[in-house]
Amino acid sequence: MRCLLSPLVCTLALVGCAGSGIDPANTGSDVPLDQPSFPTGMALHTTERALVVVSSNYDLRYNTGALLVADLDKVAAMLADAPDPDIAVVDDAYDSAVLFPSFGNRPVITDDGGHMLTAIREDNLLAEVLIDAAGGSLDLSCGVDAEPGQAAPLCGQTPYAAALPGNDPFDLVLYEQTPTLISGVAALLRSPDLVFFFLRPERTGDDRIRLFRKTVGDDIIGTRAAVGLPGDRPLVLASADRIRLSSTRTAALIYWFDPAAGDDTVIRRFDLYAETGAESARALAASPDGDALFVLTRAPDAVVRLDLVRDGNDLDISLGGVGPSCREPIAARTIRQTNARGEVVDRLLVTCFSSDTVMALDPYTLSVTDQVADFGRGPYDIVVDDAGPTPVVYVSNFLDNSVSVLDLVDDEGEVRLAPKGRIGLPAPPPEDGR
Fold it and tell me: Which of 3.30.2140.20, 2.130.10.10, 3.30.70.141, 3.40.190.10 would CATH assign to domain 7-432?
C-alpha cells in the first residue's frame, strides 16, 4: 500500500487493516454508502443542514471511495437527549452519496452551495461534484448516471475532473466565485508547484476546468496546507517544506501571494524554521479577524502563532508565540463563541492523530484550555457547526470509520469541548479481533 500520509499514519492504518479482518480476496467489492471507510476530509454545506464526509477507501478494500452526505437535523434530534455520549450513535444519518475515486481529501463547497471540489491524491485529480439542494436535501451528481449494478454514479471523470500537473494534491482554496467563474488554487504535497484552476460552470466540454501552474521555488519539496485570508483582494497563505542547504533534513516555510495577480503573482516567504526550528509545517488556520495565522508543526510537534499586519496586497509577518501540542497535530480550526455571561470567547481547535485527542487552546496565550481524548481513533479533519440548535464540532476518525460530535458549549454555558455522540458505529480496534 502506498504511504500517502506520514509513516506513522501508514503504520497505524496497516495495523488496523490487518487486525480488522480485511481479506485481500474481498478487494473489489462495493464501498458502503451508509458509513465511510477511512474518512478524511469533511465540509459543511453552505445553505443546508448537511455534512459531506469523504470516504477515502484508504486500504483499497473496495472498488472506489465515496462522498457521503449526513443529515445534520437528524443527527441533532437523535443526540439531543442522549444520556451517555459513549453509546450515543446515529447509524442512519447518511442519506445521499456518490461513488468517488479513492484517496480523496478535504472538499470545498462554493458559497452558493452548488459545486464541491475535492483533491484526489492517488490519481492527481481535481474533481467536481454538482449539488442540488432543492427540497431541503442534497442530491450529488457529476454528469454521469450509475452503471448497471452500481448503487450511485461514479464521479471523478472528464469534464467534471481534471488531471493536475503535479504530484499529490492536498489542500484547495477558492479565491473567486461568480456565476460564470470559480477560481482557486491547489497545493501539492510532492511538487514545487502550485496549480491554479478555473472552472466555468456553463461549459460542458473538456474546457470546463482550465489549469495554470506556477513554481513556488526550486528548493520546495511540497506544499502541505493553504488557507485564504479575506480582504478586498484575498491573499493565500501556505505552508511548505523546503530542502535545507548542506543537509538531508527539511525546514518549515510559510509563503503567501495574491492569487488574482495571475501571471504576475509574486511569492513572498517567511522562514518558519529560522524562527522556531520546525522542520515541517502542517495545517494552517486563520483567526476570525485575519490578524493571526496558526501553524501546526512537526519535529517538534507544536502550535505556532504568527501575527499578521496587512499592507495592501502584502503582509508583515512576525512570530507571536509557540505553544505545546498533542502528538502528530493534523488539522486546525478557529472558532468564536459567546458564553453564558455574554463574553466573546475565541478558541483554536486542533486534532492530533497519534494521541486520539482534540485540543482547545487560547489563541492568544496558546495554553490548552480543555481537551477530549479517546473519543475516536485517528482524529483527522475537524469542522465547526454553529448553525444548529447548539454549536458543535464534527471530527472524522480515520481509524474507526466514525464521525465524533462534540459540544462547543457545556451545560454551564462555558465554551468547553464535551463529547455528545457519534455519526456511525465505530469499527472495533485491531486488538479486538473482529
Answer: 2.130.10.10
Q: Is 125 exposed, middle or buried (0-12, 13-18, 19+ CB in 10 A)?
A: buried
Report residue 25 as a C-alpha cell.
Answer: 480476496
65 neighbors 102 (Cβ within 8 angstroms): yes
CB-CB neighbours of 333 under 10 Å: 17
Output the pLDDT for position 83: 84
What grid cell was written down for 305? 502563532
Residue 135, classified by CB atoms within 10 Å of its CB into exposed (0-12), middle (13-18) or buried (19+), is: exposed
Q: What mean pLDDT is predicted for residues 299-312?
A: 93
Element (H, E) at 172: strand 169-178
**How far, in Å, CA of 103 to CA of 57, rounded?**
7
Q: Across 89-98, 132-141, 311-320, which has the greatest mean pLDDT?
A: 89-98
Cell of 195: 496549480
- pLDDT tens, position by position, 144-162: 999 888 899 999 999 999 9
Binned at pLDDT 50, 70 and 90, residue 245 comes out as: low
Distance between CA atoms of 140 and 135, rounded to whole angstroms?
13
Which of 322, 305, 226 shows the shortest CA–CA distance to 267? Answer: 226
Rounded mean pLDDT of the chain? 90
CA atoms within 13 A on the CB side of 1: 22
Per DSSP, helices labelled H in 245-341 are 272-276
Identify whether the C-beta of residue 373 lies closer than 8 Å to the C-beta of residue 357: yes
Q: Which three cell numbers stand for residue 105?
A: 481529501
Residue 371 buriedness (CB in 10 A; 0-12 / 13-18 / 19+): middle
User: What does the alpha-carbon distance between residue 234 and residue 225 come to, in Å, rounded to a whole number?
Assistant: 16
For residues 391 and 385, is the Cβ–Cβ distance under 8 A? yes
Q: Where are the domains of the chain?
A: 7-432
| pLDDT, average across residues 294-323 | 93
> pTM for the complete prediction?
0.91
Counting every residue, how long is the chain?
Answer: 434
Q: What would the pLDDT profile of 158-176 be if each residue is shown by its tens digit?
A: 999 999 998 999 999 999 9
Percentage of the chain modeled with pLDDT above 70: 92
| Residue type (1 letter), 288 | P
